[in-house]
Amino acid sequence: MIPLEQYGEFETAWCPGCGNFAINKALKKALSMLDLAPHKVLVCSGIGQAAKSPHYLRCNCFNGLHGRSLPPAQGAALANTEVAVFAESGDGCSYGEGGNHFLAAMRRNVTMTYLVHDNQIYGLTKGQASPTTAQGQPTKFQPAGVASMAFNPIAVAVTMDTPFVARGYAAEVDHLADLIVQAARHPGFALVDILQPCVSFNKVNTYAWYKARCYKLGADYDPTDRNAAMLKAQEFGDRIPIGVIYKGTRAPYEGRIDSRVRRPLATSKPDMAKLASMLESYA
Amino acid sequence: MPDSSVNIVIGGEAGQGLVTVGDFLAKALMRAGYEIVVTQDYQSRIRGGHNTYAVRVSPEPVYGPRETIDLLVALNAETVALHKGQLTAKALAVADESVDLSGVPGLAVPFKSLCPKPIFENIAALGVLSRLLCLDAAWLEGIVSEVFARKGEEAVAGNLKVFAAARAWAEASGAGFSCMPPPMRTDKRLFMHGNEALAFGALAAGANFCSYYPMTPATSVASTFVDKGTKLGMLVEQAEDEIAAINMALGASYAGAKAVVPTSGGGFALMVEGVSLAGMTETPIVIVLAQRPGPATGLPTRTEQGDLNMALYAGHGDFPRAIYAPGTPEQCFELAYRAMNQAEKWQSPMFVLTDQYLADSYRAVVPFDLAALEPMAEPALTCDDPAGYRRYADTPCGVSPRLIPGFGEHLVVLDSDEHTADGHITEDLTVRIQMMDKRMRKTEGIVSSIVPPTFEGDEKPDILLACWGSTYGPALEAAQILRERGVRAAVIHFSQVYPLNPDHFLPVFAKAGRTFMVEGNHSGQLAQLIRQQTGYAFDQLITRYDGLPVTAAHIMDRLDRL
Ligand SMILES: Cc1ncc(C[n+]2csc(CCOP(=O)(O)OP(=O)(O)O)c2C)c(N)n1
Ligand code: SF4
After folding, report:
1. Residues with Cβ < 8 Å from A238, sequence gap 6 or more?
2. How far apart are CA B506 and CA B90, in angstroms?
3. Which pTM was predicted?
């Protein structure tokens, strides 16, 4: 195990009491359990409060654009087999601006771990509704309540037969760390949607609110049963399950890469003799 | 000097196989030693409509397409009706005997009796054409055999039989079409269009990652990568959209790949945010922007040089970039290679602008000299002091040491926010100034490696034609026509359109009588840029924006009207 200190201690731009702190702690713990040294970890993120996470962790970091944590993460994972790839961002970034990338990533199924800090609100832009804000929930910008229905990432992921689908809760650090470990070890695209209290803007989904509702899935729950997972994925209200909702066996994208592609691409040089003979065929 | 070229136009509906006829014929002509310029004109549909495949062929160098037609191969009656106005004095229209050829000098071919099955009609047409052009049958027989070898000996024999029968019929019919002068070239050349040459330039530079979303006329760059690049170790992925394509490529580039993204105007519009990301994170990337008429979806399958402004200004904020605009397939290869190298060297986005005309235009391309390519810049994989590694360390030339994650103890931290030398978000405004200055300092290096414009023609021309990208050939031909008329003429061609070094061209402009900028767009985008940067105003603009390529005749027509 890599000592936790290796992943660093940083001053953050987060509000005191924010759920992001606990998620950061859980991720460090998971990386240590996974025995991944900082230089073997790559975290790609988008933009938002959650997206700043990789800056508060010693690791390789590609902190790109809003909604775009997944495309660079997949590009990097495909290009470079020397790093374990994670993408980490908020629910607005992941399911709003990045919605199409989320759908495509599930279809593509590149091996990587997607950590979504789901606080059901936009933090960095100060309190607008996010795609996971409950319908009817008032916000500063939607005072009459959010008109659209909430997006259910877990149900969509199960529908897409995403190989690993889990829900974590920020305040359950050890449980969350374990979910991240399992996600990172699972071949293919792994989603961990993490319930994250935003103490500044989400006055509904508070620590107390989650505490009264979240329960851990027990040993009696079989995550490999897709039909059961479909039902579990729709449970969100008075009771909210946390744990591994679904575990599938869909073959990852890497197995479908042309065998002539030599990865890591950083060490792959063109075969000039082959190129020359290819050009000959145009004569 | 009279124009010794023959312009062969094959016209018909999409799906009738006119591209097959065109490709076979053009390639045979190239092998025989002729010069060719192929222009493909097609509509945005898969079947029906009216398409043409034009091969302008000559024993002497030809530089661009021509509107007038010497040999019209009409696969349907509409082709005759649409193009009879373009026929030259020596012209001949070739069509099936069912097509009404009255009023045009025509040759009615009994395709039904020459072909056991309609699918052989293409080959029969080639048989007739080879005879009319007095082209040695062996050139086409060779290609027919190569292409059908995959389908077995029977297929080869069947096709050769039809070819011979059609050729014999044409000979017996005594159809009159003047033979072309014999070709002069004996060296080996490649039958290749601009996009293929461009793709190979990138591959030669070691491009090994391409993410794309299909859009005409960039698609054939991606298809060449799929076809050939994969065999050379390239990873090609069709992204969900252009936003993903460029972001995916940037992730791959950061992680050690050499990445290219081919796209066209509308797709590039979606990539703009990613272009800024490349600039801010100093991640190498080459964007191939194959232009077609806009705005919006414009004329999806036609040509234009309308996106220079977008390439110039794409992105928010300031960051260095270079824009290349090849004029020939040879330049497509060279400049794609160069763009890859410069992207790596200056860790900035680099652009290659091409257009539908050049993208689809087959030529007899002089084989590329792979041994003469300048060495590629490469990122390092390790560093001596991982603790001291800083991705954005300030340096005199503005270029920071680029390392690849995962290959050593060092950490590579990139950020789209303004960042410190070690890559972390900062709102320290002094650091902002330092980083901005560092990034922009790379401009000096980029300026020092500008590809200067080429100058060809009379030293002190009465007429100077300036142009960029694919208008090169037509401008050269127009200058030649002017000289034949006794006018001193010259051409200056920009194959790099940004940044510009006024010392490279202002002295040339100063020596010219009247100066004209020839561009395939409405507003004269390069003329505007030159004026903006130097104050120099061209005497006149010659533009074209009807979706068709600029031709020498178009330029002459505009000059004659002045
Ligand atoms: C293209 C683009 N649009 C909008 C923004 C502004 N923006 C920054 S963060 C953000 C929302 C963040 O919400 P979320 O992803 O839920 O993350 P949180 O801050 O709640 O962690 C928005 C809209 C941006 N940076 N880029
Ligand atoms: S705004 Fe909300 S999500 Fe952002 S740091 Fe503060 S509490 Fe956390």
Report:
1. A213
2. 44
3. 0.97
CA distance A282 to chain B (A): 5
Q: Answer whether A78 sits within 8 Å of B209, measured CB to CB.
A: yes
Q: Kindly report the length of chain B.
A: 562
CB B38 within 8 A of CB B363: yes
Q: Which of B252, B368, B413 sits opposite A75 (nearest CB)?
A: B252
Distance of CA B220 to the CA centre of its chain: 10
Contacts of A265 in chain B (CB under 8 A): 208-209, 233, 235, 252, 255-258
Report the b/e string of A139-173 with b at 16+ CB within 10 A.
beebeeebeeebbbbbbbbbbbbbbbbbbbbbbbb
Cβ–Cβ below 8 Å for B190 and A101: no
Residues A129, A134, A137, CA angle at the centre, nearest 5°?
A: 70
Which residue is associated with the tokens 């794609």?
Answer: B336
Per residue of chain B (562 residues), what is the pLDDT tens digit? 568 899 999 999 988 889 999 999 999 999 999 999 999 999 888 888 999 999 999 999 999 999 999 999 999 999 999 999 999 999 999 999 999 999 999 999 999 999 988 889 999 999 999 999 999 999 999 999 999 999 999 999 999 999 999 999 999 998 878 888 899 899 999 999 999 999 999 999 999 999 999 999 999 999 999 999 999 999 999 999 999 999 999 999 999 999 999 999 999 999 999 999 999 999 999 999 999 999 999 999 999 999 999 999 999 999 999 999 999 999 999 999 999 999 999 999 999 999 999 999 999 999 999 999 999 998 888 888 888 899 999 999 999 999 999 999 999 999 999 999 999 999 999 999 999 999 999 999 999 999 999 999 999 999 999 999 999 999 999 999 999 999 999 999 999 999 999 999 999 999 999 999 999 999 999 999 999 999 999 999 999 999 999 999 999 999 999 8
What is the phi/psi pair of residue B163, to 5°?
Answer: -55, -50
Taking the mean position of all CA atoms in its chain, how far away is CA A230?
20
Q: Considering only residues 398 to 417 of chain B, which have any Cβ-Cβ distance to chain A shorter than 8 Å?
A: 404-417
Confirm or reject contact between B377 and chain A (CB < 8 A). no
Question: How many whole angstroms from A200 Cα to the centroid of ligand 2?
Answer: 6
Does any CB of chain A come closer than 8 Å to the CB of residue B20?
no
